[in-house]
Amino acid sequence: MTAEVVEDEAAFYSKAEMYWKEIPPTVDGMLGGYGNISNVDITGSKKFLQKFLGEGAGKTGTSCALDCGAGIGRITKRLLLPLFQTVDMVDVTKEFLSKAKSYLGKEGERVGNYFCCGLQDFHPQQGRYDVIWIQWVIGHLTDGHFVQFLRRCKLGLKPNGIICIKDNVAHEGVIMDDVDSSVCRDLPSVHRIMKEAGLQILAEEKQDNLPEDIYPVQTLALR
Ligand SMILES: C[S@@+](CC[C@H](N)C(=O)[O-])C[C@H]1O[C@@H](n2cnc3c(N)ncnc32)[C@H](O)[C@@H]1O
């Protein structure tokens, strides 16, 4: 549990904000120097997400998606804008959202909202989203805030909407990273949080073809 590793909650959030303010607004910056894994990541995500999308009974629509912890819009640009009519972005670092406006190019005109806000404080508009994509940011939330955020995300979904979480998983327990002020949870901890948020796991998949020296990455679809 994060309560065991996060001593001072206010400092946990403010240190993370200070860390990201110093990071260059580039793909490499978003991926901690591993910009070269972006293609593999996006290709894997597209394959995972497309299984749910389409028309007909039970299928997830393609009108609006939300990119959480969006940064400069690496995922918005290559995964979400090509699949959804409108994409909203939310991130705590205003410099990244400013950069997104040029980084996304012409297609960026279909970004509906740039929300500059921590996910711990963010309330998605009820019933607005077909897909809420949350990648490489859950470690910046305490367990309590993560549960509450997921509950609000659930309310933000349209019928047949899904929440997708893609993130690093620890081998065991909850590991603190003092450099960027984040935690890495093992899969049982993530599952427990999802259950507490009242979400069911529809699919779960490990991302293949990542370097050996980084944490394994898991993608989950929930509603
Ligand atoms: C590792 S980067 C990932 C960016 C993007 N998801 C991607 O995969 O390219 C983490 C992002 O989370 C943002 N972030 C950190 N703490 C946050 C918080 N509490 N709420 C919202 N965004 C946060 C940072 O500003 C940064 O853009």
Automatic annotation (TrEMBL):
Protein name, please?
protein N-terminal methyltransferase
Name residues in a coiled coil. Answer: none
GO MF? N-terminal protein N-methyltransferase activity
**In the UniProt record, what gene is named as encoding this protein?**
NTMT1
The enzyme class is transferase
What family is it from? Belongs to the methyltransferase superfamily. NTM1 family.
- Single GO biological process annotation from the record: methylation
The protein's matches in Gene3D superfamilies, at most eight in alphabetical order, are given as: Vaccinia Virus protein VP39
The alphabetized UniProt keywords are: Methyltransferase, Nucleus, S-adenosyl-L-methionine, Transferase
Listed under GO cellular component are: cytoplasm; nucleus
**Binding site residues for S-adenosyl-L-methionine:** 69, 74, 91-93, 119-120, 135
Q: Where in the cell is it found?
A: Nucleus
For this protein, what reaction is catalysed? N-terminal L-alanyl-L-prolyl-L-lysyl-[protein] + 3 S-adenosyl-L-methionine = N-terminal N,N,N-trimethyl-L-alanyl-L-prolyl-L-lysyl-[protein] + 3 S-adenosyl-L-homocysteine + 3 H(+); N-terminal L-seryl-L-prolyl-L-lysyl-[protein] + 3 S-adenosyl-L-methionine = N-terminal N,N,N-trimethyl-L-seryl-L-prolyl-L-lysyl-[protein] + 3 S-adenosyl-L-homocysteine + 3 H(+); N-terminal L-prolyl-L-prolyl-L-lysyl-[protein] + 2 S-adenosyl-L-methionine = N-terminal N,N-dimethyl-L-prolyl-L-prolyl-L-lysyl-[protein] + 2 S-adenosyl-L-homocysteine + 2 H(+)
Q: What is its EC number?
A: 2.1.1.244
